[in-house]
Design a protein that fits this description.
Radius of gyration: 21 Å
Distance between the termini: 40 Å
Structural class: alpha/beta
Helix content: 25-40%
Bound molecules: N~2~-(3-carboxypropanoyl)-L-arginine
């Protein structure tokens, strides 16, 4: 049976805006209060999806979540009519109002951790939605994310969608953004590598000082246990606290993998030598050799890593051999980063081609190409069992783009978030989206 790496990209929701909600994420805090263009954001994402689909990669879409989350605001003591709730929240807790409207589910790499069926003992694909409890606006995602995943991956013969881990800091889980899988082929048993930012109980390795380590070791271990992963093919590696303090809030800001290849920066991990050694040993036990492409600080500094999002890239296996690296256009705007890309291409190494996408709307909130997608390895039967009309082709791209153009604003700031018209617009848009994606009832709006 053939296996495919399917990229499920988050469709940017109609309430995308810049609220500065993610301390530790330099782009988010730096662009706080900027004017957002949700329409452009969604179209940029859709254009990336289509371009990759047209090159033959299997590309799908995950729907945005319903916003505003009035339940959150009501649970925090705002009462009366919906309009009152929004107005009072804007006056008293503007940041919480922004959180309740956040479109942050667009960064699908944080939706869940996924273990393909070749790694799990019951031969099913396992999903654990990430509790994202490091940030208020993200912690409200997982219940709705689980619901969407359970609609799309409803067939329990093939798929298991667990609940998120308990909502406590000790079990902070950021999903696939802190998880890498290595395998000689997508359908073969692989090595799953969990990258944690801190441990709740073992403080011996220290942790970041300035910013928060979002993913805990304890959460990573729990997800591995739930998915039934073989411990000799599972590796836990710690993010370098200095990198977190420089703005590398997820591992996927500084490392990316596909098949047996790891593309990373020398400052990505604590104790690089032993981290890589453990990874190499696990790959060896699984019967293949790990290949690495490592960039040094002398090539690209941590600051440039964070500014350009060079590693927040997608590594895709080209049908003709070698890897395609999908990077944000910011990478070609930094001369040193751009020179690095050229050097990689000239080196005769595994990265044979680089393509850039303009994802500026998402990038300004700290979300590059890799953040926007959740990778799900599926075989032909599992692929056929996916529900909804979620695979991107020309016709779905055209329909979704038309839907975006009809329903999305091209200008959105925090000031607009008490506008009752916006609530109506979003409701109308999502109701229509349910039928475009053939996921009727997803938002329980009717
Ligand atoms: O969690 N930004 C997201 C970006 C997530 C990127 N994902 C990965 N690296 N996989 C975050 O920090 C900003 C929202 C705001 O400030 O309005 C935000 O949530």
């Amino acid at each position: 049976m053939k296996f495919h790496e399917v990229n499920f990209d988050g469709l940017v929701g109609p309430t995308h805006h810049y609220a500065g909600l993610s301390s530790g994420n330099i782009a988010s805090t730096g662009n706080s209060g900027a004017v957002a263009n949700p329409r452009e954001a969604a179209l940029q994402g859709l254009d990336k999806m289509l371009a990759l689909a047209e090159r033959g990669f299997v590309q799908a879409v995950l729907p945005p979540l319903y916003r505003p989350n009035l339940e959150l605001l009501r649970s925090l003591g705002f009462g009366g009519s919906d309009e009152n709730v929004l107005c009072n929240a804007q006056r008293e807790e503007p940041a919480i109002l922004c959180a309740a409207w956040s479109a942050s589910a667009m960064w699908a790499a944080n939706a869940a951790t996924v273990s393909p069926s070749s790694d799990t003992p019951d031969g099913r694909v396992h999903f654990t939605p990430a509790n994202l409890n490091a940030k208020l606006h993200r912690a409200q995602e997982h219940r709705s994310t689980a619901r969407a995943l359970r609609r799309i991956f409803a067939d329990t013969q093939y798929f298991v969608v667990h609940d998120a881990l308990a909502d406590v800091g000790a079990l902070g889980d950021e999903g696939a953004a802190n998880h890498m899988r290595f395998a000689p082929g997508h359908g073969e048993p692989g090595v799953e590598c969990f990258v944690f930012g801190r441990s709740e109980f073992d403080k011996s390795d220290g942790g970041p000082q300035r910013f928060q380590g979002r993913q805990t070791l304890e959460a990573s271990r729990a997800v591995a246990r739930r998915h039934g992963l073989a411990m000799d093919r599972t590796v836990f590696v710690q993010q370098n606290p200095a990198a977190i303090d420089a703005g590398v809030f997820h591992n996927d800001v500084i490392a990316v993998s596909n098949l047996n290849l790891l593309f990373f920066h020398e400052e990505a991990f604590v104790d690089e030598g032993s981290s890589l050694e453990r990874l190499q040993q696990a790959c060896k036990r699984a019967g293949f050799a790990l290949q690495t492409v490592r960039l040094r600080t002398a090539d690209v500094s941590l600051e440039e890593v964070v500014q350009s999002y060079l590693f927040n890239s997608q590594l895709l296996e080209r049908p003709g051999g070698g890897m395609l690296l999908v990077v944000p256009s910011e990478c070609r705007e930094n001369t040193r980063v751009s020179a690095c890309l050229d050097k990689l291409l000239d080196s005769g190494g595994p990265i044979r081609e680089v393509v850039t996408f303009d994802l500026r709307q998402s990038m300004r909130n700290g979300g590059g190409p890799a953040c926007l997608r959740l990778r799900v390895v599926l075989n032909d039967a599992q692929l056929a069992a996916v529900r909804g009309r979620v695979f991107i082709d020309r016709s779905l791209h055209a329909e979704l783009s038309g839907w975006v153009r009809r329903h999305y604003r091209d200008h959105l700031t925090a000031h607009d978030l008490s506008d009752p018209l916006l609530v109506m617009e979003v409701q109308e848009a999502l109701l229509e989206l349910e039928s475009v994606l053939q996921l009727q009832g997803l938002y329980a709006l009717a």
